């Protein structure tokens, strides 16, 4: 199979993809939208992208991009430990700036504020780029936040390991196929009220609570038109009777005359892996 993942090489996502698909052809693609588009167009069989972090929350680009495709869905969701390390060139004398991906800098902000309060942090496209930039430009006054493997493979010296304790990221495995209920599933969906009214969010969520469906996650996002799109994750499969009734009721309440497309869109149903408690690595 061809597996697309959020590139470039030598990143956490690549390491995870290798562990999940050790025998398959792996294709690094960036940004996230292009990974999802590659799955949608059938250029690859599956895709792997980050969707949520234990500290920094949802990955907005993943959520937004999934609303823009018609076939591609989340078919599996898996949590992995992410162990950020700080490294420099062996000849480094002091650190005046630290490079990494924006999410990594955010996740490690407590450590950075406590240990390097006066150091400039600089966001780059990936943790891999941070390492390469320091190495290729021979930056003796800079550090990089990346995986231990990426730092050591590029002959950088590790100053501190696991600088964001208990850090986990959930990754979504994407495909164009439907999944079957297992009896312990999750469903990710988005709904977009076309007209605002007092109590609309409460009434929308009530369709699930009234049927005993638990919600694990809710997030709102501006739609760029003055309104909001809501994302929720619930316990159950889209083919479960109660979930089907709740979604049908939600659609009707938002668009009773069926005048709008995709006021409710299912982003995927998949087995519950309880990612915050269980790790693959």
Give a description of the structure.
The protein has 281 residues and is an alpha/beta fold. It has 3 domains: 2-81 and 168-175, D-Maltodextrin-Binding Protein, domain 2 (3-Layer(aba) Sandwich), CATH 3.40.190.10; 85-160, Periplasmic binding protein-like II (D-Maltodextrin-Binding Protein, domain 2, 3-Layer(aba) Sandwich), CATH 3.40.190; 185-271, 2-Layer Sandwich (Alpha-Beta Plaits), CATH 3.30.70.260. 28% of the residues lie in helices and 32% in strands. The chain contains 9 helices and 15 strands. The protein has helices at residues 12-20, 32-40, 60-67, 102-107, 109-115, 127-136, 148-153, 200-209, 241-254; strands at residues 2-6, 25-29, 46-53, 57-58, 73-81, 85-88, 97-101, 120-124, 142-146, 157-160, 168-175, 185-191, 215-222, 228-235, 264-271. The strands form 3 sheets. Strands 1, 2, 3, 4, 5 and 11 form a 6-stranded mixed sheet that branches. The chain has a 5-stranded mixed sheet with strand order 8-7-9-6-10. Helix 2 runs parallel beside helix 3 (60-67) and helix 8 (200-209) runs antiparallel to helix 9 (241-254). The model has no long low-confidence stretch (mean pLDDT 93).
Please summarize what this structure is.
With 281 residues, the protein is of the alpha/beta class. The protein is 28% helix and 32% strand.
């Amino acid at each position: 199979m061809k597996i697309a993942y959020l590139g470039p090489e030598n990143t956490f996502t690549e390491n995870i993809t290798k562990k999940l698909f050790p025998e398959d052809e792996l294709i690094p693609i960036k940004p996230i939208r292009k990974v999802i588009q590659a799955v949608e167009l059938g250029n690859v069989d599956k895709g792997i992208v980050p969707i949520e972090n234990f500290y920094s929350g949802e990955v907005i680009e993943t959520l937004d991009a999934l609303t823009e495709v018609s076939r591609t869905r989340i078919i599996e969701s898996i949590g992995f430990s992410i162990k950020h390390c700080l490294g420099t060139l062996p000849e480094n004398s002091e650190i005046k700036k630290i490079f990494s991906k924006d999410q990594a800098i955010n996740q490690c902000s407590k450590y950075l504020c406590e240990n390097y309060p006066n150091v400039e942090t600089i966001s780059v496209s990936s943790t891999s780029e941070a390492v390469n930039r320091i190495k290729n430009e021979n930056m003796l006054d800079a550090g990089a936040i990346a995986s231990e493997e990426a730092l050591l493979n590029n002959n950088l010296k590790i100053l501190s390991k696991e600088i964001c304790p208990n850090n986990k990221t959930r990754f979504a495995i994407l495909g164009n196929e439907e999944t079957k209920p297992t009896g312990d599933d999750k469903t990710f969906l988005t709904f977009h009220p076309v007209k605002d009214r007092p109590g609309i969010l409460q009434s929308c969520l009530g369709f699930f609570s009234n049927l005993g469906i638990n919600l694990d996650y809710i997030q709102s996002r501006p739609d760029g038109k003055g309104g909001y799109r809501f994302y929720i994750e619930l316990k159950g499969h889209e083919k479960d009777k109660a979930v089907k009734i709740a979604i049908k009721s939600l659609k009707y309440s938002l668009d009773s005359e069926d005048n709008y497309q995709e006021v409710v869109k299912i982003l995927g149903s998949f087995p519950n892996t309880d990612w915050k408690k269980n790790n693959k690595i």
